[in-house]
Design goal:
The complex is a heterodimer of chains A (392) and B (76). With 392 residues, chain A is mainly beta. In chain A, 4% of the residues lie in helices and 60% in strands. Chain A is globular and about 70 Å long. In chain A, 43% of the residues are buried. The N terminus of chain A is likely disordered. The longest helix of chain B is centred in the first third of the chain and has 21 residues. The chains are: A mainly beta (392), B mainly alpha (76). At the A-B interface, strand 1, strand 2, strand 5, strand 6 and strand 7 of A face helix 1 and helix 2 of B.
């Protein structure tokens, strides 16, 4: 058995980003995503559109289908037998511009055979100083139902309620530089399994030589702060008008004990109708969950008959329990990700179609490697995508 | 030592940002030729960003910080 299932905290605040000052294009995007690691393959077609009307009203929508193939205990085998499952997600967005203020609301719903998620988001942003400054806030609420589906058996195990607050500040610094700063505060769960179920129903843990089901706290308080700087170096060539950079850093900490640092650098190089983009990203998770346990070899295991307390948890409802996990994501590790994307502007199609000539075609490929236990559990990953964007 | 260096790095970046903002001038819309390029516009690539955060969420212990997140999957 490998991964997935169980928890997610469903957050769609990002949907709001679609109608803030950052992106107002009327377009339709058709994208095919591909992900593969040692245990899992995901093929994901997505359709997404945004349309802004003269009244300042923006509408948007999104539909995606995940075809997830993995070795899963839910398929009724112990290992090495492939099982494919589908996940569907749709979302709608509505926004209204009122002078310098943008108001927005969104809803998304995701469904798979043992996990259902609803997410609603409200947000607002305001442009200041001739649109040199943008301040934004978004609040999202999610409700998930978590079940376990085994051959001949189906049971609902719990629910997860999530509240996610995002505040952001975007600032034009000069003709060639723009900065973004954001802070996220996320409350996942409120203290019991009817509102904070976050274990993976299929993940087993070695406890004194026998296997037990994973048990993690019913609440998690997450914090993330991120900053990025876009900078363009103008070049004296009409074919290569500029060289662009995006430098970003994110710091994350939560009350389970996880802490991580994520620096990232992107380079953009437009050459005529083609733009090359490279992304390099390092993820350093240098603190593990306080209830993580291994026997010195990096493999998760607990001695005796019980788990470990969450010594870093803040709420009284989570402090008193003993917890078990073999989730690789809760250990100390580092990963590196490198990606190349090529974007082609379809201007050369103007003789055929003015509409098509406004479109974009993108192809990307990335590779991720990581170390320690996640390397044993997941291996490396390949990520690819094909995108066609055209105006509405 | 490593923590101290990271804290110093974060503090330096934030200080630089704040200091830079204090000294910036208002840039007119017609002066933003390069900033208006698609690649220099945050948040314009919704479908790509969403998928990226989706798989990162399934492989990393952290989330958030990018003003956006995928959601609704049992991919823990």
């Amino acid at each position: 058995m490998t991964l997935r299932r169980a928890v997610s905290f469903a957050i769609a605040a990002g949907l709001l980003a679609g109608w803030t000052h950052t992106a107002s294009a009327d377009d339709m995007t058709i994208r095919g995503n591909y992900y593969r690691d040692r245990n899992t393959r995901v093929i994901q077609p997505v359709a997404d559109f945004t349309k802004e009307y003269k009244t300042g009203t923006t509408v948007g929508g999104r539909y995606l289908l995940d075809a997830i193939t993995s070795a899963s205990v839910a398929s009724g085998v112990s290992a090495d037998s492939l099982f494919t499952e589908l996940r569907q997600e749709f979302g709608v967005r509505l926004g209204q511009r009122l002078g310098p203020v943008n108001l927005g609301a969104s809803y998304s719903y995701s469904s798979e055979s043992d996990y259902w998620a609803h997410t609603a988001t409200l947000g607002a942003d305001v442009d200041l100083f001739q649109r040199n400054t943008n301040l934004s806030v978004a609040l999202s609420y999610g409700h998930d139902d978590v079940a376990q589906r085994m051959p001949g058996n189906f049971s609902v195990l719990g629910q997860l309620d999530t509240v996610h607050l995002i505040v952001g500040w975007s600032q034009v610094l000069s003709r060639t530089a723009i900065m973004n700063v954001g802070y996220d505060f996320i409350v996942s769960g409120f203290g019991d399994k009817t509102n904070g179920f976050q274990s993976n129903p299929y993940r087993l843990v070695n406890v004194g030589g026998s296997m037990s089901r994973e048990e993690v706290p019913f609440q998690r308080l997450r914090n993330a702060i991120a900053a990025s700087l876009y900078y363009a170096i103008p070049l004296p060539s009409p074919t290569v008008p500029f060289l662009g950079f995006r430098a970003a850093y994110r710091y994350y900490v939560d009350d389970w004990g996880i802490q991580s640092h994520t620096p990232e650098l992107r380079l953009f190089l437009p050459v005529g109708p083609v733009e090359f983009r490279t992304t390099g990203r390092i993820y350093v998770q240098d603190h593990q969950a306080s209830f993580w346990s291994d026997l010195g070899d990096g493999l998760p295991a607990y001695t005796g008959n019980g788990g470990k307390p969450c010594t870093t948890c803040l709420s009284s409802s989570t402090k008193g329990g003993l917890y078990l996990t073999s989730d690789p994501k809760l250990s100390i590790f580092t990963s590196e990700f490198l990606e190349l994307r090529v974007l082609l502007k379809l201007r050369f199609l103007r003789p055929l179609s003015a509409w098509l000539s406004e479109g974009l075609f993108e192809a990307s490929y990335g590779h991720m490697i990581n170390d320690r236990y996640p390397h044993r559990a997941f291996g490396d990953a390949d990520i690819a995508g094909l995108t066609f964007t055209f105006p509405l | 030592m490593r923590d101290c260096m990271l804290r110093l790095l974060v503090a330096s970046v934030l200080t630089l940002c704040v200091a830079t903002v204090g000294g910036c001038v208002v840039v007119k819309p017609y002066q933003r030729e390069h900033l208006s390029e698609r690649s220099m516009t945050p948040g314009v690539e919704r479908a790509e960003d969403s998928f990226r955060q989706h798989w990162q969420f399934s492989r990393e212990g952290s989330t958030g910080g990018y003003g956006a997140a995928g959601g609704g999957c049992g991919c823990n």
